[in-house]
Amino acid sequence: MNDAARETPAEPTVSLAEEYAASGVGPVxxxxxxxxxxxxxxxxxxxxxxxxxxxxxxxxKFGLTSEAPxxxxxxxxxxxxxxxxxxxxxxxxxxxxxxxxxxxxxAVTRDDLVGQYIGHTAPKTKEVLKKAMGGVxxxxxxxxxxxxxxxxxxxxxxxxxLLQVMENNRDDLVVILAGYSDKMDRFFRSNPGxxxxxxxxxxxxxxxxxxxxxxxxxxxxxxxxKLSDDARQALADYIPxxxxxxxxxxxxxxRNALDRARLRQANRLFAECEQDLTLERLATISAxxxxxSRVFERREGPS
Length: 303
Known about the structure:
Elements: H1 3-6, H2 16-23, H3 25-35, H4 40-61, E1 73-77, H5 83-96, E2 105-108, H6 110-113, H7 121-132, E3 136-140, H8 155-168, E4 174-179, H9 181-190, H10 192-197, E5 200-204, H11 209-222, E6 226-227, H12 229-243, H13 250-271, H14 279-283, E7 284-285, H15 287-291
Helix pairs in contact: 3-4, 3-5, 7-8, 11-12, 11-13
């Protein structure tokens, strides 16, 4: 037997870079980076999950079969921190990698799942689950499903149906439970069935003042507005004052503040309607449009 005949057959190989490119996950991750300012820990975790699923898919091609990974998740953090946006991109990632059929997101709250009388909850919950199959079910403020103080509450029925579907249909549905960190902790302690089915717990930090400023400029640019130099300083002054007030909701509060600034700008321009408007004036938010907010009066409520 010659040396060539005795050579060991070459081990099959695969290019993970090519598999990644073919999956179409890259553009979704880039879109997530472009959409959301900051949130580095969250984006890192999403990339880690995407890497795990990509490698798992490649392993299957080599016959290295294993039990399907548990993909149900918990997103915790304050309002306006990007949880729904990340859930939407997660649904697309799961679809690109073949873990859900459709890749759509169905976002619900307790009212969409729990009925108000006997026999009402099961049909409501099952109808929502039917719509979500093949994609991701996002349950915001999930802890409101469980009301320990009310023995006649129908939330427990919805929970039992959800737990059964999360276990039996995990190859066709991913459930993401979302809400405040402390309340979600209590919810999981009271409902160990959920904790055992949720593999990925991702915490969304609050945005820094610099992040919120960048978010504000990004929002305005998307609407073809810009800040004057004085308005930039006004917005920088606004953010820490508003953060210290009640009901602050991160990017959501920034959007509301800028919507009101646009309203003030429109009314200011209307009051000056005898003057012809230039493109520059139409596109510019001035300092007075920001500083007219009641936030600068340090009142209790948001403006």
